[in-house]
Specification:
By secondary structure, this protein is mainly β. The protein has a single domain, classed as Porin (Beta Barrel), CATH 2.40.160.20. The protein contains one helix and ten strands. The longest helix has 15 residues. It is elongated, with a radius of gyration of 17 Å.
């Protein structure tokens, strides 16, 4: 797992590099931007009880996608998120989520994403996400986010999961 984080960090830094002699281009809209990150579900609540990541199992989500900004304030985003679960020393990809949504720039580096979720596990729902640019570079931004996943379906009780996410947008 440490190797994965090292590779992710290396490529994140590589993507953030921009040659010093280039001048900044004026921003035009619509504008495309890509992103990739790591999300860690922290705690899940349902009527079956509360489960905590990092305790009896470990789940990590690896979201990546495209933002299409219509204006400086509003846009559309499409994210694809495979999820890996490690339990009893066995790891497997156990789910992929298709996650389209609306983006709203809130100012001061904050953004809101209102997403719908369609999971290959048979679950569906909504995910409001509050994100903040933590480090701004010329060619990329490093961000942190707090997703709140509300899920239904597949003959399981409704659940609410709080997660933390970190990544790079370019």
């Amino acid at each position: 797992m440490i190797r994965f984080y090292s590779i992710f960090l290396f490529f994140s830094l590589l993507l953030s590099y921009k040659a010093s002699g280039q001048e900044a281009q004026p921003v035009t809209y619509p504008r495309l931007a890509g992103f990739a990150g790591l999300a860690h579900p922290v705690i899940t609540f349902s009527k079956e009880g509360t489960s905590v990541n990092f305790k009896d199992f470990y789940t990590v989500a690896i979201p990546s996608g495209i933002h299409i900004w219509k204006s400086p304030k509003i846009g559309f985003s499409l994210e694809v998120t495979p999820m890996i679960r490690v339990e009893n020393n066995i790891s497997k990809m156990n789910n992929v989520m298709i996650h389209p949504g609306v983006l709203v720039a809130l100012g001061n580096g904050f953004n809101f994403a209102g997403r719908v979720a369609f999971e290959t596990s048979g679950r569906y729902g909504v995910t409001p996400i509050l994100s903040k640019v933590l480090i701004r570079n010329k060619g990329s931004n490093f961000y942190g986010a707090l997703p709140l996943a509300l899920r239904f379906g597949n003959d399981q009780p409704s659940s609410l999961t709080l997660a933390v996410m970190f990544g790079v947008a370019f």
